[in-house]
Amino acid sequence: MVIPGYTGNILHIDLTRGQTRTESLDPELARTLLGGYGINNRLAYDLMRPGIDPLSPENLIIIGAGPFAGTIVPGAAKTAVTTRFPINGAFATAAGGGCFAQMLKSAGYDHVVISGRAERPLFLRITEGDVEFGDASELWGKDSFETIDELRSRYEPCSVIPTGQAGENLVKISITSVDKAGTLGRGGLPAVMGSKNLKAIVVQQGTVATRVAHRLSLQRLVNNLLERIMKWPGRQFIVENGLMPAPPDMAEMHRKTRSPLACASCPLADKVAVRLSEGPYAGLQTYMPHLSINRFDTKNSTEAYEQSVKYWDTLNRYGLCGVNFSSLLSMMVSLYNEGVITREDTGGLELKNNIETALKLAELTAYRRGLGETLAEGLVGTAQRLGRGIEERIIHIKGHAPLYDPRTRSLGTMEFEQMTTPRGAHVSAAGSPSYEPGRPPSDFARHGERMGIPAEALNRVAGETAFNPGRFSRYSEDWYALFNSLSLCNRAHVNRFYHVKTIAELYSAVTGIETTPAQIMKASERAWTMGKLLNVREGFNRKDDKAPEAWFEPIAQGNKEYRITSYHGDNPLTREDVERLLDEYYNERGYDRQSGLPTVEKLKELGLESEARELTKQGLIK
């Protein structure tokens, strides 16, 4: 039986043998793990043995589209990709927008499992009822955007997940994008593709419609959502300015150069295309998930804007993670200026805070040439290779540069969750009102109710005068897992329109499976826990969930020093305080505080009895 909202098919592709097969999706997986992220984790747990090398043929790339993909549900465009990441050896799921999830469903598949290693460079073209192992010899060496353009010219309408030069050269800080704008795979997904000689994955639009159980109910729910979205004052601002508006001194330039972009089914168009018509980069056309400004040593705002566009275009084309590479760039320039490293270490390069240095190091890293052979290993690998005590100075969580520093923002869920997610410092898994510093406690209570925190837990998680980022993050992570399992966009301006009751009603309308808010959040917790168990088998535990030492030292900005504080800035925090918050996080999850791992009782509560027996037998949990 095929449940509405699902195609009922899992496509297996063996690159080594050049063979494919189709497996029926077990309806029980849809009921217990929802789809996308959740089923990806189940497949990874069942199909991959512990201890595999992330860059070996045995590592799998598992792609999933949830039950909302291919429907009219607003923002249902997320594609989930699960693998073991080379940056830190963690199993994790990346999620990106674009049109891939929608088109995968139209080709007749919910999930794709890619194994093995091809003898020669190839691309995969997935169509309705067929898979082509295409010759990628002429594509090898092209950047991500060039690869997408070439494949689109052949197969449009289609969606493409490409590999740039960084992925080809197994760079551990590589990243890619779906259809040029939906960033995907921070931490080396393209390197995994490159290790398999896989240049790109193309899916062509097919004719398989996503069947819906209750069309009128779904239409009513979607109409209500769209009415609220279209009336929201922030919508027009985002359409005109993008998700992250340009600074005031660059706002006019940005308005003249940008155009809005939207993923499939998105009514907000928060991504941007930018075309520079003047200056040293005249004619540059690029695409971004949002505008980011890097102020190198520049003369004026115009130069800073143009250089930022060029910088991010370069990283996106090579396929280099902007956060990790920018952190490496800043570290290397600082070390050079302090005399810790010299031209002997840099291959004769003089490192400066300018666009020339940035572009040169990006090139070297993408091709693993000279100094780039070291930088391609990421923050930890670079520090270990350089030595001289540099490893003690780097700021990272599980190998990733943090996106949020609680010394300048205070300790909210976005900062806290960087420690607890198995993936390492990340951006979305604990989104909450603390995305914006200074929100009142009442906002957390309201948001907590919206995402299904049980009434008995809400007071200890978000009280009248304060909120607990440790306890709150547990529920934010499950909320994130829910969105990625259903293929819903979890960006704050889409997320804000969804209540757990609405999501449960949408799920019932699409699939015909009657569910309650509590039941769907339990399925989401189960999906998150399956991702956790993948890493339990690899030996990850509480020792890895730690804050960088630098967080407990003051940071200077201008003439002021900033220290880590509680969310509302009223109490300075020590490492012991943060460890207590971790205790409370594990307690809220039902994990063992000492190990930071799920208990047997918790796994049984989630219906994961066989996993509990297996992991207990191996001595990994108790």
Structural account:
- This protein is an alpha+beta fold and 622 residues long.
- Helices cover 42% and strands 14% of the residues.
- A 6-stranded mixed sheet has the order 2-1-6-3-4-5. A 4-stranded mixed sheet has the order 8-7-12-9.
- Strand 1 and strand 2 form a beta hairpin.
- It is globular and about 65 Å long.
Give descriptors for this structure:
622 residues; alpha+beta; four-stranded mixed beta sheet; 26 helices; 42% helix; 14% strand
List the helices and strands and how they pair.
Blueprint (H helix, E strand, L loop, with lengths): L8 E6 L4 E6 L2 H7 L2 H12 L13 E4 L14 E6 L6 E6 L3 H7 L4 E5 L6 E6 L2 E6 L8 H12 L2 E5 L2 H4 L7 E3 L3 E3 L4 H7 L2 E7 L10 H17 L1 H9 L9 H7 E4 L9 E5 L9 E4 L12 H18 L3 H17 L4 H4 L8 H13 L4 H4 L2 H9 L19 H4 L3 H8 L20 H10 L4 H7 L7 H18 L5 H4 L4 H12 L5 H20 L18 E3 L2 E3 L12 H15 L1 E2 L4 E2 L1 H6 L3 H9 L5
Parallel strand pairs: 1-6, 7-12
Antiparallel strand pairs: 1-2, 3-4, 3-6, 4-5, 7-8, 9-12, 10-11, 13-14, 14-15, 16-17, 18-19
Uncertain residue segments:
none
Number of strands: 19
For the biggest sheet, the summary is: 6 strands, mixed
Beta-strand portion reads 5-15%
Structural class: alpha+beta
User: How helix-rich are the residues, as a percent range?
Assistant: 40-55%
Instruction: For the largest sheet, list the strands in their spatial order.
Output: 2-1-6-3-4-5
